[in-house]
């Protein structure tokens, strides 16, 4: 699981980073809201820990901007302990709220609880394809794909579990081309894996069936208008 921390106080940021890393999470950190927003799309976190009092744009505004493009779980972190602030955070779209000072064990427990609530049930890897708007949402985050990458994903998602040969993919993606080859198929499988896989070298979604072709994991959810 990937966690992205946004905290401007170095000591708190470093303590959280060390603790969560020791708990087995993959952790990245940002010292400002602007930096978090820059990192968010590329890092594709499973959860964000977001301080309210930040330099530049504050945590409320960062949360608003995140909610425009993602349903990624967000835990607000702040020295403000008033009930009105907690209500504001939760009503703005935060999933939980931790008040400083805090115990690391509490942070760990709240993260685990939020992830349990937000993680799809076993067997559901949460991939949504909106063919009309050409939008792909993976684990709650919108993924930007090129037209060819989108077409490849749409083809594989049309029959999850079915093996598509390289010839099948060539016929669908390059129907009138006499120059496209199996190497082009391999190239776009590679590019698509870089976009959607947690670890492209150990894919969960786009699976290779050696000697035959590629298939999409059967448990993916792929509603498409």
In words, what does this structure look like?
- By secondary structure, this protein is an alpha/beta fold.
- It folds into two domains: 2-118, Rossmann fold, CATH 3.40.50; 127-216, Arc Repressor Mutant, subunit A, CATH 1.10.10.10.
- 42% of the residues lie in helices and 19% in strands.
- It is built from eight helices and ten strands.
- The protein has helices at residues 10-22, 33-43, 59-69, 83-92, 104-118, 147-158, 166-173, 182-196; strands at 2-6, 26-30, 47-51, 74-78, 96-99, 127-130, 135-138, 141-143, 206-209, 213-216.
- The strands form three sheets. It has a five-stranded parallel sheet with strand order 2-1-3-4-5, with helices on both faces. A three-stranded antiparallel sheet has the order 6-7-8, with no helix packed on it.
- Helix 2 runs parallel beside helix 3 and helix 7 (166-173) crosses helix 8 (182-196).
- The longest helix has 15 residues, at 104-118.
- It starts with a strand and ends in a 9-residue tail after the last strand.
Describe the secondary-structure layout.
Blueprint: E1 2-6, H1 10-22, E2 26-30, H2 33-43, E3 47-51, H3 59-69, E4 74-78, H4 83-92, E5 96-99, H5 104-118, E6 127-130, E7 135-138, E8 141-143, H6 147-158, H7 166-173, H8 182-196, E9 206-209, E10 213-216
Parallel strand pairs: 1-2, 1-3, 3-4, 4-5
Antiparallel strand pairs: 6-7, 7-8, 9-10
Helix pairs in contact: 2-3, 6-8, 7-8
């Amino acid at each position: 699981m990937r966690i992205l921390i946004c905290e401007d106080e170095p000591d708190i940021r470093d303590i959280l980073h060390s603790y969560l890393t020791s708990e087995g999470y993959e952790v990245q950190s940002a010292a400002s809201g602007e930096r978090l927003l820059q990192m968010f799309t590329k890092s594709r976190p499973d959860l964000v820990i977001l301080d309210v009092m930040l330099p530049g744009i504050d945590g409320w505004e960062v949360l608003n901007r995140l909610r425009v493009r993602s349903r990624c779980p967000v835990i607000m972190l702040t020295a403000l302990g008033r009930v009105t602030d907690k209500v504001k955070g939760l009503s703005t779209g935060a999933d939980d709220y931790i008040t400083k000072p805090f115990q690391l064990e509490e942070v760990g427990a709240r993260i685990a609880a939020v992830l349990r609530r937000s993680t799809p049930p076993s067997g559901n890897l949460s991939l949504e394809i909106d063919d009309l708007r050409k939008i792909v949402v993976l684990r709650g985050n919108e993924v930007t794909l090129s037209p060819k990458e989108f077409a490849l994903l749409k083809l594989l998602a049309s029959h999850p579990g079915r093996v598509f040969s390289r010839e099948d993919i060539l016929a669908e993606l390059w129907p009138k081309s006499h120059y496209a080859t199996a190497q082009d198929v391999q190239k776009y499988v590679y590019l698509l894996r870089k976009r959607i896989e947690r670890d492209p070298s150990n894919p969960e979604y786009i699976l290779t069936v050696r000697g035959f072709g590629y298939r999409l994991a059967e448990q993916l959810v792929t509603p498409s208008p």
